[in-house]
């Protein structure tokens, strides 16, 4: 009996010590705590992966990278280049209609030898030193000073001057030949030899002055220019095609 009493006392002692410790280690009931609340309590920012969303990606923020998009972009750029080239060609064509140069293939306006077009200098009295090219707008027909000059076409004298820019003593005649507007210019004449005045009507082959060396000239010669519908043409070829 004594032994039983001693064991009972020991068990009671152990229970008295252990039970309070176990009671203190058991968590006390508490309300459910969310992740957001935990983040607030800890003063930290928390991103929950399940709640993250992607910002919309606008097409304008990136470049085409797929083969189809690259091919389409190249095709669009090529189309733009072709359109720009076509527009440039149209501008050139438009600008040459009023002041460009016609080809030699369309020089004939009347039947050669019809009399509507004449040589401005007597045949055999001159040679051609240069003709239409670059900045030179006509043909230089070299002849002795004083050689008579004749109107290549009939028409109305528009210019008759003793000092016409770099042309020196010069005459300009406006005509209609073969249904087209023709303007002929005769430059570097001898001073005081002009035989026509502005506004005067002249006939083909009519005497209008004499070869000289006035204006921007380096030796006696006739500078002869021809324009058809406002476009420069090669004068010597034009004479051969129309004067015979």
From TrEMBL:
Protein name: M23 family metallopeptidase
Organism name: Microbacterium esteraromaticum
PANTHER family, alphabetized: MUREIN HYDROLASE ACTIVATOR ENVC, PEPTIDASE-RELATED
Domain of life, source organism: Bacteria
Domain M23ase beta-sheet core: 135-235
InterPro entries named among the record's database cross-references: Cell_wall_metabolism_enzyme, Dup_hybrid_motif, M23ase_b-sheet_dom
Keywords: Signal
Signal peptide bounds: 1-23
GO MF, one annotated term: metalloendopeptidase activity
